[in-house]
Amino acid sequence: MKTKEQLSFTYPIDKLQIKLSYKDKLIDLLNRNLDFHNQHSNYSSHNFHSFPAKFPPQLPKLFIDELTEPNEIILDPMVGSGTTIVEAYLANRKGIGLDIDPLSLKISKIKTTPMNPKRIIESARLIYRNSKHDFENNTTYLESLLDKKFDSKTKEFVDYWFLPEIQLELIALLNQISKIDDILIRNFFQVTFSSIIITKTGGVSLALDLAHTRPHKARTIIDKNNTIRYGQEFLDSDSKRKSYQTKTIRSPLDEFWKKVTQNLKSIVNYHPQRIEPDIKFCDSQNLSLNDESVDLIITSPPYASNAIDYMRAHKFSLIWLGYNIEELTVKRKQYIGGELVSDFLFEKLPPFSLKKVNEISALDSKRGFVLKRYYSEMSRVFKEMYRVLKPNKAAIVVVGSSIMKGIDTETHKCLAEIGGNIGFLVPHIGVRNLDRNKRMLPAGYKTDLNSQIQQRMHKEYIIGFYKPEK
After folding, report:
1. Using CA atoms, how far apart are residues 316 and 311, in angstroms rounded to an integer?
2. What integer pLDDT is reported at residue 211 of this predicted model?
């Protein structure tokens, strides 16, 4: 009787060559320069909305072009800002984007929806004109809308992060946006509204930089009339950091109009061969997809221990879009990479991953449990990815490592081991040096393991998982 290893060589020669050529091509792609520095990444709708740590569109485009054919299915089970799905759409592939983050789903949907620019600009003019009129003439009415909109906890958050007159402009905009009958156009304006709040620099809140995803309030605030609202003593100090901790607040009305005109130029065009993507709420640990139904997976999972805490930034706009602080806090606990470990179902980890968990646990048991939670969650994600992926196909996972208690978690090695334990082959792991001028990341160029901010990513790894035929 032939062994399993012997049977693997009994394929017809043409089938064997197809299998090897795909895997060899995967290895070749992972060995290429994947930095994509100095390349234009703001084409199509990729620049609709800022998003922490999104990878350049050239990365998914490369693997989509080289490893799939038109009409095949591309999955991103943690869709984030929708970069993979936009590239799938542009390449005439069927994109499936899944996430549990409400802002991610809204952004991804709008970025892949062709719309009529004429209708948008007409609606935008109406929104801007009526909002400006209400702000200048109907203050009492807007204040009553604000009073009704937020519960006490959410209002406390809003008052801390937004000046009173900024709140009035924002509620004026939202009130007019809510009157748009067409739900897609209304969603377009909601995403545009969100994008004037969540920015790397600027924005209309008192946060210095929402790229940090652990926002810091400016020490000195100058309003749109160039009046210092608070922090004069800090501005007069000798601090070398005062220029970095001073913020001039911009008018939401003006910022909204600028962003609408910018996004209008980037709307994806309708093309008869392009396939409408399927973007929906779904937990990546329990995919609502059939077995062996996907031709390629490209995704970038969150980082362990909320190293990049998406919800802390997203809630700045989500509270205006109908969510309250308490329900967003509950949602945050459900995200992969979270810190809640009580009553959590842990998975059995393979040796190297368990060793890393034990190293952290020896220094801080709570951090160790947090890392174990992350690797347990990713184990379940990989099981689902393996289930839905067709044989002889690949999953591309872009991930950065984390530093816990001064120890590198070597996340790429652990995830490769976990995937291999499930049944994937890992023929190669590519490396990408981050372009820190483009990526929304709160770190400098030099690594300093004594600094929490500097412990963030300076490079990331592209793991190539290959599903062999049984």
Report:
1. 9
2. 66
